[in-house]
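Quick one: NADP-dependent aldehyde dehydrogenase from Marinomonas rhizomae, structure tokens please.
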Amino acid sequence: MSKEHGKNFINGSRSSDGNTVINSYSAFSGEPLNTTFFQATQAEVEAACASANEAFFEFCNFSSSKRAKFLNCIADELDALGDDFVEIVHQETALPYPRINGEKSRTSNQLRLFAELLSRGDFYGARIDTGDPSRQPAPKVDIRQYQIGIGPVAVFGASNFPLAFSTAGGDTAAALAAGCPVVFKAHSGHMKTAEIVAEAIINAAQKTDMPSGVFNMIFGSGVGKALVQNPHIKAVGFTGSLSGGNAICKMASERAEPIPVFAEMSSINPVILNEGAIKNRGKLIAKELADSVVLGTGQFCTNPGLVIAIKSESFSSFIDDLSTEISNKASSVMLNKGTLSSYVSGIETLEKYHGIEVLSRGQSHEGQATPYLFKASSKLLLDSDELLQEEVFGPATVLIEAQDRNELIKCLSAMRGQLTATLISEEDEMAASSDILSLLQHKAGRVLINGYPTGVEVCDSMVHGGPYPATSDSRGTSVGTLAIERFLRPVCFQNYPDHLLPDAIKNSNPLRINRLINGSFTKDSINL
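--- reply ---
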């Protein structure tokens, strides 16, 4: 075992100044694994942030092609991790091997996608309005704009995606693509996984001649506040609970220099069923929906947590079919004991709550999460009851039967912001559902028709975000290339000599990127 094992990553080196040692645990047994880590001290957190800040002024000025090379190299390092790494992830998270391998590929692929974005250059958002000294009554000045990195970014690892939303995940990839060094807070649920991925990032940084502080990682509980409040940090990326996200937002807003927090938090991802779809393919929908509810032990932020339709005989039959499907689903191991404890607590609360009944439960096994199907009174939604507005993180969903279409619309209107909203419908019903679809656009970041929200494609057009409390800022996304926008800011240059301008807005357009020049998009150079 390496002498550096378990130490914090600071300025290209490993550090263990503190005396507090923490364990990584088996997701299956809850017993400590043969791995220990050093909790970062206040001084180490400050050193990591200072290192990132020092690196920023060099890193942000690198060409986009140089940063793209760095991202591609990280992807190559991740791809080279073998079965021994997959086994470590499996032990720490209980995720099945195919899921881990798939997520590993997704993580490297999204790094390469950001590298492609850097090569395209559209992230610069280049805008140019050329001057006109002859304009009357006052000359028109030459004004040009492009986007630069906002500064060092603090990123908090997610529990449910130990690769794609963690150390080298979407937030880290987007920040690095933007030219922002990262200080990463490793998630306590998979610290060994985080360490190996961090080593891959550091290897890539050294191979591509990045500044030593371009990536830093700290371990431990209680270090998040010092990280968020450090004056060198200019933005935060977070994926986790509503309470955790709200706490970070509060810390960030109370700083002497408030900073933006891009937190993904809580979503129940409603699925609306139209009558024709239920009547024509109710049994198939019940099977597909049940599969979506239990996929990954329900540990997806896009898990369908609420199903709603108008009362009818067809819907009653569908409820029976879905109840049967859920009852046939097996229990499974969750990410860790803490996640299981939260799930069990959420289920017990629903079971005891007035206006909610258990329709079906899956096969149970001690120490595992049992799938559940509940039915709730529509009054709970109409009264904006908090219980139905927050997700139960795990393999459970709630049915609501609206009395008529008017009540259905009212229920949807009462919902808070979501990551996703889904309409299951026949083609000939969709025109009559235009008002529902319009409403859902204002409730969710991604609206689906005849699909299921679990499964998020990593591509240019994906939006993985939504109004509060799905995220803290609905203007961003944590998946897809638009995610880079969270860590960029526009800078305007007025009456600059051409030789002093950044390449993205020089007359000759040396980067050959698409630019908005005097109101028209073009890759042409400017001849003055």
